[in-house]
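Blinded run. Sample ID left blank on purpose so nobody reads anything into the name before looking at the predicted structure. Input follows.
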Amino acid sequence: MAATGVTAFPLGDPRQGIVHVIGPELGITLPGLVIACGDSHTSTHGALGAFAFGIGQSEMTHVLATETLWQRRPKAMRIMVSGRLSAGLSAKDVILAIIARIGAGGAVEHVIEYAGQTVRAMDVEARLTVCNMSIEAGGRAGMIAPDDQVYSYLAGRDFAPKGAAFDQAVAAWRQLLSDEGAVFDREVAIDVAGLAPMVSWGTSPEDSLPITAAVPDPDTFTGEKRASARRALDYMGLVPGTALEGLAIDQVFIGSCTNARISDLRAAAAVLKGRKARVPVLVSPGSTAVKRQAEAEGLDQVFRAAGCDWRESGCSMCVGMNGDLVGAGKRCVSTANRNFPGRQGKGARTHLASPAMAAAAAVNGHLADVRRLLGG
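Blinded prediction complete.
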């Protein structure tokens, strides 16, 4: 955009992709920045220690014109995650378990800080997945304090500081930690040791359960949740007591700003390698750089050999874009962040899961515990 001096990444640019993928990938997202973007999943960038949140179009105009924005001070929430994840589980399982625990409105008016040994053990791409779905718990933003993993991730990236400037930046970034004894408006602790792979059953990410569970009975809920659970089961065409594992599906989508980075594609390819998908599978990388890296590693050949449709980078079926839709009444396992009615097409029934779980569903033709395939 020469007229404005704003750098743009059009479709033909090798740096283009979903904004929440290319921001960190290019080193545009840095610790300590305040990042506003016209998309609710801007919370993704908090994984690098930025304060990042979505805004509306009129607010975006104000930001571009003035570089300022009035905001009400949010409350602070800390979610401490402990326990070692077992084989086959990932950050997507952790954040679905968190949202199922605190609810879709559990973090309204709060900025969430994710902390604890489990979060510290995650690589940067896993942290991006966790922070991405903060908005699905009602959070204004999600953040993780930067550490050596973040600094190593940013070193040498296109827009990150270079040389002595990078060293100076790291010295400043090391100060971006919550004070010892900091007080939070709300604290939540969750132990993921023994957690089973998660999958959603309803029409909100909070409607998620371990794959080993069954569809719940709405009568076990109270208040508005009872009514919403009934509506969800009616929309999803499910009956209480139905085992989640074994539920037949019609197609699979692997992509979105939640799970379309190179580590996500590697996880899905590891399950699909040497196997055939029993249902249509669409794979859309999160950026052109991710697509090229996947092709350099031969992941595209793994997907094609399994019968998957290997696409260009973009949002694709996450939001029913470019004609990538799920038919009415059809059941899709998606690595995206939302399973709202109509999100992937009118009448589409979406089950959220991790890339590995989505690949397992593709191989089986039904919801399946990926740990069985890894064991084999």
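Unblinding after everyone has recorded impressions. The two ends are 52 Å apart (CA to CA).
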